[in-house]
Amino acid sequence: MAEPIKLGMLAWNQYTDWPAFRKAAVAADRLGYDDLWTWDHLYPIVGSPEGPMFEGWLSLAAWAEATQHARIGLMVGANTFRNPALVAKMATTLDHISDGRAILGIGGAWFDTEHRAFGIEFGQSPGERLRWLDEAVRIMRGMLDGEEPSGDERYTTRGVRNMPPPLQPRLPLLVGGGGERRTLRTVAKYADACNVGGGFANVKHKDEVLRRHCAEVGRNEAEIERTVGTGVCVIRDDPAEARRVFEKLFEGNGGARPWKDQPVGTPEQIADILRPYLEIGFRHFVVGFPYPYDAETMERLIRDVVPLLQA
Q: Which domain holds residue 26?
């Protein structure tokens, strides 16, 4: 029997207000979304950076109190922002707040503008940040598993303990990004899940690279859940109307240019876009929702698109 189709709701925490942002999470939870996500950024990353932005971890804690069923995490945490031992502690606390629904999402970070503004060390290159990430994920995984890891290069943790432990026997750790030399190898070594995007051809290629890394490090690739970032979805019975709504969403997010090749159209068109991922083992779709969080699309993904994919 095929694994079920999973849907994640990624609510953009930029250019929004708190009541609408909270309401989006509650609505997705009630509709039956499997997980709720937001970004870990300090400035908007789509459109003008000179706009409002809510902090990610505190948003998750509030969502945990307001929801009941869906898992909750960052897509994905910026490793540069915080000491990894502290992040493991925060994720553990979120697991208790949410009654065992936390996911620790983490990535290498990329947006230098916010790092400069907030005085956060950015590193000299993407390669350096990904070396930091690999060490950080090892520390986080160890702490979540009840070990007492120490840092060995970037981090100075020494036999750090994590008490109380998470409620979940194994709190999932998701690594986001598709770096072929370092990020996907970190996934192969430590992660319970990965997230990649950029269209089907790119996702298929990255998955092939991940499988090679798993073989090299002796990891069973089936242990790693594949999730795909679909981008922003808008569903209407009239494709032209869907496009109009889509463009208006981006205009309201700092005058951003609409992204290309997004899942916009009728339920049948959306299903046709997503169906190829099923053939390569990706059954978990994380869908972006900018403010004002299109309620019709949120509902129709569950009601109309998922049955088409399951069929």
A: 6-310
Residues 6+ apart with CB under 8 A from 9: 24, 25, 28, 33, 35, 36, 37, 70, 286, 287, 289, 298
Residues 6+ apart with CB under 8 A from 212: none
Nearest to 144 by CA among 189, 99, 196, 84: 84
Task: Fill in the amino acid letter for 88.
Answer: A
CA 53/CA 28 separation, integer angstroms: 21
For the chain, 311 residues long, give each residue's pLDDT as a single digit of tens.
678 999 999 999 999 999 999 999 999 999 999 999 999 999 999 999 999 999 999 999 999 999 999 999 999 999 999 999 999 999 999 999 999 999 999 999 999 999 999 999 999 999 999 999 999 999 999 999 999 999 999 999 999 999 999 999 999 999 999 999 999 999 999 999 999 999 999 999 999 999 999 999 999 999 999 999 999 999 999 999 999 999 999 999 999 999 999 999 999 999 999 999 999 999 999 999 999 999 999 999 999 999 999 98
Cis before 290? omega within 30: no
Looking at the structure of the chain, the number of domains it has is: 1
Whether 1 is in a domain gets the answer no
Is 278 among the domain residues?
yes
Is 225 contained in some domain?
Answer: yes
Question: Letter for the amino acid at 269?
Answer: Q
Strands in 35-38's sheet, in edge-to-edge order, are 71-74, 35-38, 6-11, 284-289, 225-232, 193-196, 173-176, 104-107, 77-78
Could you tell me if residue 156 is inside a domain? yes
Helix (H), strand (E) at residue 174: strand 173-176
CATH of the domain at 217: 3.20.20.30
**Beta strand pairing status for 35-38 and 71-74?**
parallel
